[in-house]
Each structure stands twice: as C-alpha cells, then as structure tokens.
Write a structure and sequence with these properties.
This protein has 406 residues and is α+β, with helices and mostly antiparallel strands. The protein is 14% helix and 35% strand. The chain has four helices and 24 strands. The protein has helices spanning 16-33, 98-109, 184-197, 275-288, and strands spanning 7-10, 37-39, 47-49, 52-53, 63-64, 72-80, 83-86, 121-122, 133-139, 143-150, 156-163, 202-203, 206-215, 223-233, 236-247, 254-260, 262-267, 295-305, 314-323, 327-333, 339-344, 363-365, 382-384, 391-392. The strands form four sheets. It has an 18-stranded mixed sheet that branches. Strands 2-3 form a two-stranded antiparallel ribbon. The longest helix is centred in the first third of the chain and has 18 residues, at 16-33.
C-alpha cells in the first residue's frame, strides 16, 4: 500500500504550533476512526455511522446524560451568526494543584498488578503548561508510566505503560494464533468492571466498537483486546471524542486507558446545508485550485474544533473526501459553506473510501498525543507501526469463520 505524509492547506493563517498540533491530532484520530465509520451507498455519499449504540450494549449500565468528571465542559451546539457553534471557554475554571494530580495518578497506577513492585517516582522536569490537563510521567526500574489528569476535576484521563525492553519483555507480552482466550462477553465484563471501579460513566450518545484483537499502539507488536467508544449525536460525529481501553488478552486486566471527551449535550443541524451541496461546493473549490479529482468518495458531518486559531469553539463542519492522487478531504462550514481547509497527501483509509474492508498500516504515535507538547511536534513524534489486526470477537464462543481469522 502506498503511504504518504499528511499536509494541510488552510484558508486562514494559523500559528505554526497549532497547525502541527492539528495535523497530529488528525492523524491520531483518523486511525481510531477506521472501525467506526463506513461509507454508505447513498447517492450523496453520506457515510453510515457504525458501532453499537451504548443502550444496546452491556455498557448501558453506566450510560448517563450527565457530564462525567473525566469530560471537559461543553454544552449545546446551536446556530449563531457564524454557523453552528459550541462555545468553549475554560479561562474561568479553577485548576487542581499539580501535586494533587500527580498523587491521583500514582494511586490510579497502583491498581495495576504489573506495577506493584515498580516503586514509581515522578519526573518533575517532564511537564508543560496546558489549560485542560496535567501531563505526568513516572519512572520505575523497568517501566515509564505516562499519565494525564483532567485539570479541573482531577480525574485520570490517560494511563499508558511503556516497558524498558532492555530488561526483558513486558509481563503481559502475548502472542496470538487466532484462538481467543476469552469470549466477547468476558472481555466486556472486565472492561465494565474497570470503568465501574474507577467511577467512570459513558455518554448516553456513545457508540461502541469492540472488542477487537489488535496490535496495541504503544506495544508496537503486542496483541491486546481493544474497546472503543465514540460520540455520535443526531448523526454528527463529535471529532476527537474517543475512549479506548486495551485489555490483556490472557487476564482481562486493562493495560492502557484513554478518555478524551468534551461534553456535548445536543447538536442542532436544522440550519446546515445538505451533503449534496457540501460536495458540490468542495468540487468547485478544488477545480478552482486545478486539482484533478476523479470523484467524491464520502461526506460526513463533524462537530470539531474551530482550528482557525481565533477561538477554541467547536463548529459544525462538512468533511468531503475525494478520490485524488493529491487531495484527501475538503472541510467546509456546514452552514455558510466557507472552505476551512484542504488536506493533502492523505493516508488511504476506509474513512475516505466506499468500502470499509481495506486493511491499512497507518502512522501512529509511539506515545499518546496528549503527551506531545508543541516543542516536540513534527515527524519525530511519529512511528511506523506494524500492520494491525482488525478482528472482532464473535458474539459466542463458536469457532470464527475464515473471514474473521487474521
């Protein structure tokens, strides 16, 4: 498969750090969205939202309409003079003390059976100013533990273990021969227990994907069960709202956890243009740029960060993906039709194609995007991982069909 770097052309001037951050977050989220969005066959190329509604899963037990402490404050996305916007302003919120956040992270890490003898100490130099979370790093004899704590509530939103392989493989290094040690129900029970024990709830609008056997991002070649949750409201994907759990395929213990979610109570779409109009305007814009375009591949409504550098607000956006050697997608304001940006040199991905079955080996972060300050943005932050395995567990313990085997 041809793999190329991503570049972004914007119609607005942006700061260098913010542009790099936008690119990195886009690549990271793109990979996580592969299993949740499949292009539909409708004439307007609208994608069909995948996943299981949370109410139809075992996780309905912890579904709620109330904002969880791990979430960042948000609200309703409603029509304004500039489009459909969700105002974001954290300037008036009180932050928890950094030392309190570090202690909370240590207590969270202590529940892992793999860290009981690691005697973690904090790297106090490894930090930077972020308005919404405290980034944290701890060292042990054989590990580095990365974490992040919501700066307003003090709740853990990220937990990753990086083993020092010079001392041998990690204690949960697992091979996978296609035979699942646990059933789907058992894996989900372990994940639900972890969330309940740590007092996490899930948004009632969540969609659920999993468990799938994959090579974990930070483990590079180590197999885990991956469970994902996405936020889809009124058939609009809230871009960046993702919860992930990596589960040891032998024991069921959660070995990695990521909770990035801005609370969105509702999204108004009545004033937005149709997908057909968005696609037409995208093609007109690309032809004006003399870009050779074969066809439109897909279009999807996103509620995403403004990205202009003028504010942190979220805006309703059409993402129109095209079949082209150079161009990946065109992003337009869903109400005004203003072209916000054009992405170039896109990785081939099911999010952009009519068939969701294509396997890809994307570029992944070696450490989570939450740990990448503006000072270290750039190609050095990326690492090419081995081909991932997208295999969902069957509903029962029955032998998987040949098409389900890796």
């Amino acid at each position: 498969m041809k793999m190329v770097w991503l570049g972004v052309h914007s119609t607005k001037r942006r700061s260098g750090n913010r542009s790099a951050a936008v690119v990195m977050v886009f690549l990271f989220t793109l990979g996580m969205l592969v299993p949740v969005i499949a292009a539909g066959a409708a004439p307007s190329h609208l994608v069909t939202m995948g996943g299981t509604p949370i109410q139809d899963s075992v996780f309905n037990e912890i579904a709620t309409q109330v904002q969880d402490d791990a979430m960042l404050p948000g609200g309703a996305a409603e029509p304004t003079l500039n489009g459909i916007r969700l105002p974001i302003d954290y300037s008036g919120l009180e932050r928890v003390d950094e030392s309190v956040a570090a202690e909370t992270m240590l207590q969270f890490a202590a529940q892992s059976s793999y860290l009981t003898d690691q005697n973690l100490t904090r790297d106090v130099v490894w930090t930077w100013d972020n308005p919404t979370y405290w980034p944290l790093r701890f060292f042990g004899p054989n590990v580095t533990v990365y974490g992040a704590v919501n700066a307003f509530s003090g709740k853990v939103i990220d937990f990753q273990i990086a083993w020092d392989y010079s001392h041998g493989s990690s204690p949960y290094w697992r091979e996978y021969n296609g035979t699942d040690p646990m059933s789907k129900a058992e894996v989900e029970a372990h994940a639900l227990e972890f969330l309940k024990n740590n007092n996490y709830t899930l948004d009632v609008c969540s969609r659920y994907i999993g468990p799938q056997v994959e090579r974990g991002i930070q483990y590079v070649s180590q197999y885990v069960y991956k469970l994902r949750f996405f936020d889809i409201i009124s058939e609009v994907l809230v871009w960046g709202n993702v919860i992930e759990l990596d589960v040891d395929i032998d024991t069921g213990e959660v070995v990695s956890f990521w909770y990035h979610w801005v609370f969105v109570s509702s999204i108004s779409t009545l004033a937005s243009m149709s997908g057909g109009w968005a696609e037409t305007m995208a093609l007109i814009h690309l032809r004006a740029l003399n870009e050779p375009i074969a066809s439109v591949e897909s279009s999807v409504l996103l509620l995403s960060e403004d990205g202009s550098g003028d504010s942190d607000d979220y805006r309703l956006t059409w993402a129109v993906s095209v079949d082209s050697e150079r161009v990946g997608s065109v992003y337009l304001d869903a109400v005004t039709g203003e072209v916000l940006s054009v992405s170039y040199y896109m990785l081939a991905s099911p999010i952009l194609e009519s068939s969701p079955q294509r396997t890809l080996a994307p570029l992944w972060f070696f450490i989570p995007v939450v740990f990448l300050p503006s000072a270290v943005t750039g190609l050095a932050a990326f690492r090419l991982a081995r081909r991932r395995v997208w295999k969902s567990l069957p509903e029962s313990d029955a032998e998987p069909s040949p098409s389900e085997r890796p």
